[in-house]
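tokens incoming
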């Protein structure tokens, strides 16, 4: 296993006692998902998600690179909805992979507890082999997860909750920045909230002030 891979695994657990919680893993993932720039897609060997018929959802509007812009890309509700077929596939994989990583953490906890109850000399080799296999599985899932998060970053959207599959789209309401909000399982992008309001502050897009002026930048 490569040094970077081991480093990523140590972000989630220590051998033999796993000490990171689900909330800590979620915080780590959300930090990875922060939108700072529109990155150039990297060829990391992981499959990427694609829309049918060659449609490119990254070309829904121009990139706003002005110094005064908080976000690199802004979306209209129409643009956000056109991206949903692609986003559903990406976010579904994120939710699944996140759950698998959490399950792997639990399995490592159980394995460590069993090992502490047994004579160390009796099963050290078996224990080490099991840990290596779990690390290998976790490494693969982390790499896939990072690839999915990179896809979201390249699209200009923000992952807000890897358990619920919650996504925010930066948008403009006049000169004001807001978020359009979508959760895995919803048919359309039908909600918005202020930047500091969060999921609990979601309101229907029909209530968005100057809805007709919500534009892509």
């Amino acid at each position: 296993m490569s040094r970077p891979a081991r480093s990523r695994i140590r972000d989630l657990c220590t051998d033999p006692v796993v000490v990171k919680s689900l909330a800590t893993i979620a915080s780590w993932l959300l930090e990875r998902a922060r939108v700072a720039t529109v990155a150039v897609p990297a060829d990391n060997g992981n499959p990427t998600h694609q829309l049918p018929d060659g449609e490119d959802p990254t070309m829904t509007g121009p990139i706003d690179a002005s110094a005064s812009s908080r976000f690199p890309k802004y979306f209209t509700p129409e643009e956000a909805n056109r991206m949903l077929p692609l986003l559903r596939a990406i976010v579904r994989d994120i939710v699944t992979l996140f759950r698998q990583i959490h399950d792997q953490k639990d399995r490592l906890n159980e394995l460590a507890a069993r090992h502490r109850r047994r004579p160390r000399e009796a099963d050290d080799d078996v224990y080490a082999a099991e840990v290596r296999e779990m690390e290998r599985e976790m490494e693969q899932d982390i790499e896939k997860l990072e690839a999915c998060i990179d896809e979201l970053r390249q699209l200009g959207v923000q992952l807000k909750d890897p358990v619920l599959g919650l996504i925010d789209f930066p948008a403009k309401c006049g000169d004001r920045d807001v978020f359009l909000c979508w959760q895995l399982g919803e048919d359309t992008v039908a909600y918005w909230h202020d930047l500091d309001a969060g999921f609990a502050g979601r309101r229907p897009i029909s209530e968005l002030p100057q809805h007709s002026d919500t534009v892509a930048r």
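note: The chain has one domain: 3-27+64-215.
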